[in-house]
YkgJ family cysteine cluster protein (Aquitalea palustris), 117 residues
Amino acid sequence: MNAPATVTVNPCLDCGACCASFRVSFYWAEAVSLGLPDAALEQTSPWHTCLRGTNQAAPRCLALQGEVGQSVSCCLYAQRPSPCREVKAGDAQCRKARQRHGLPALAVAAELRCESG
């Protein structure tokens, strides 16, 4: 008899709060190495860039598709920069973003990285 398949539920696919809460800033060369399109970037200094839409009072990354707290995805997921890759479901940044959007906190899942897309 086969063991039942393990289903991994990714809370990031129903969230997107981090994509609509923080500026996603990083060294410009990372954008080049990832092949991010110029239209997705906004220069913030001679050495740094950010994902367009995140450098404003009410940030929302241009790559975020869908409604925060519902069903979301990232149209640049395969090319996402290091600040996006570093967010973990349930960590301090996640909690802060979810609170900003009126969503309940998640339990910390050390092995789960946000993977919307």
